[in-house]
Amino acid sequence: MRVAYVFTTPRAASYKLGQMILPQLEAGTHRVRVLAMFFFDDNVFVLRRGDPVGERLARVAQDQGILLMACDSCALERGLARGQPIWCEPGGTGRREPAACEPVDTVDGVQVGCFPDLYAALQGDPPDYVLSL
Description:
- It is a single chain.
- With 133 residues, the protein is an alpha/beta fold.
- It has one domain: Hypothetical Protein Ychn, Chain: A, CATH 3.40.1260.10.
- 32% of the residues lie in helices and 24% in strands.
- It is built from 4 helices and 7 strands; from the N terminus they run E-H-E-H-E-H-E-E-E-H-E.
- The strands form 2 sheets. It has a 5-stranded parallel sheet with strand order 6-3-2-1-7, sandwiched between helices.
- Strand 1, helix 1 and strand 2 form a beta-alpha-beta unit.
- The longest helix has 16 residues.
């Protein structure tokens, strides 16, 4: 079974990921193949360079081929990206061409993006389930 996680609720990344999912991934007992993790709001902070959970996660993601993606707008707002929202103008209208946005001071392997970027990344190997935590 293949899954993707979307971290949306407060402390989902620091608690649910950091104290439940990540230890299982490290031990090889999670029992599903994790394809991607998408981080929203303050959950993006675990992806900061030097964050203990983020550094562990980066190693696991590299070893297991897990996509780590931070919401572009969330990362921009919190100083973890530079550029502009990829698919939305700052005023809230949509874009037809993507803007440039890149991660800043994040753990290795993190990408910033929005739903179209996540869909494109998973298109060749889609998950069986998307779990929102």
